[in-house]
Design a protein that fits this description.
It is a single chain. This protein is an alpha/beta fold and 203 residues long. It contains 9 helices and 7 strands, in the order H-H-H-E-H-E-H-E-E-H-E-H-H-H-E-E. The protein has a single domain, classed as Vaccinia Virus protein VP39 (Rossmann fold, 3-Layer(aba) Sandwich). A 7-stranded mixed sheet has the order 3-2-1-4-5-7-6, sandwiched between helices. Strand 6 and strand 7 form a beta hairpin. The protein starts with 9 loop residues before the first helix and ends with a strand.
Length: 203
C-alpha cells in the first residue's frame, strides 16, 4: 500500500484520549507508573502525551515533567503549560536532560522508530530508564481498526497508523549497538494484550 501522511488531529486525540479509553487503560497506567517509579527529584519526558492526561498524574509525583506530541491540536486543547508540539525523531533537548522517559502507544506510529529510540537514548541520563508500551498485534494495525474507521472513515488506514509490528526481538534489533539494554519485557492486559518494555541506559 502506498504510504500516506496521517493527520493527527483533534478527533484522533479525542477518540484515543476520551473517557472510555482512559477507563480501559487504568490498569496499564498503573503498571507503567510502577515501572517508571517516579520520585520528586526525577526529570521525566513523556513522548506522545496527547493532551496531557498521564502528564498530570506524573506531576503529582515529581516536579519536572515535560510532555511532547506531534498532534498540535491535542497540545492546544490542554490546560498544561509544560506540553510542546515536537517530533520524537528530533527531540529539541540537550543530551542527558531527563532521568526517565515514558511513551505509551506511540512508537508504533513513528516512521523512523530507530531514530526516535536513539533520540530517547541521547536525552536520557546514564543509568536512566525508558518505559515503553505498544500493542501486541498478530496483524499490524488490527488494534487501531476502530480509530481508522471512526476518525478517518477508512479501515485500511489502520496500517498507516501502526507502521510497525513490534515485539522483544524487534526491540533488541532496534537497540543493537546502542547504550540501551532491555531491563524487562512483559505482556499485560488492558483488557487486550500490550507489551511493556523497560530500557535502561548504561551508566
Amino acid at each position: 500500500m502506498q504510504s500516506v501522511k496521517v493527520d493527527y488531529n483533534k478527533e484522533f486525540s479525542e477518540t484515543n484520549g476520551g473517557f472510555v479509553n482512559s477507563m480501559v487503560r487504568m490498569l496499564e497506567n498503573g503498571h507503567i507508573m510502577s515501572k517508571l517509579n517516579p520520585s520528586k527529584d526525577d526529570s521525566i519526558l513523556e513522548i506522545g502525551c496527547n493532551s496531557g492526561q498521564f502528564t498530570k498524574k506524573l506531576l503529582k509525583h515529581c516536579n519536572k515533567v515535560i510532555g511532547i506530541d506531534i498532534n498540535e491540536e491535542a497540545i492546544n486543547t490542554s490546560d498544561l503549560n509544560n506540553l510542546f508540539c515536537m517530533n520524537a525523531e528530533e527531540l529539541d533537548f540537550k543530551n542527558e536532560s531527563f532521568s526517565k522517559i515514558v511513551s505509551m502507544h506511540t512508537i508504533e506510529h513513528i516512521p523512523n522508530i530507530k531514530k526516535a529510540i536513539l533520540e530517547m537514548g541521547r536525552v536520557v541520563k546514564k543509568g536512566g530508564r525508558i518505559v515503553l508500551s505498544y500493542p501486541f498485534e498478530p496483524v499490524r494495525g488490527i488494534t487501531c481498526l476502530r480509530t481508522a474507521c471512526v476518525v478517518y472513515k477508512n479501515p485500511m488506514m489502520c496500517r498507516q497508523l501502526h507502521l510497525h509490528k513490534l515485539n522483544r526481538g524487534k526491540m533488541e534489533e532496534i537497540i543493537k549497538d546502542t547504550q540501551l539494554m532491555i531491563a524487562s519485557h512483559k505482556i499485560i492486559f488492558n483488557p487486550w494484550p500490550v507489551y511493556v518494555t523497560v530500557l535502561e541506559k548504561a551508566s
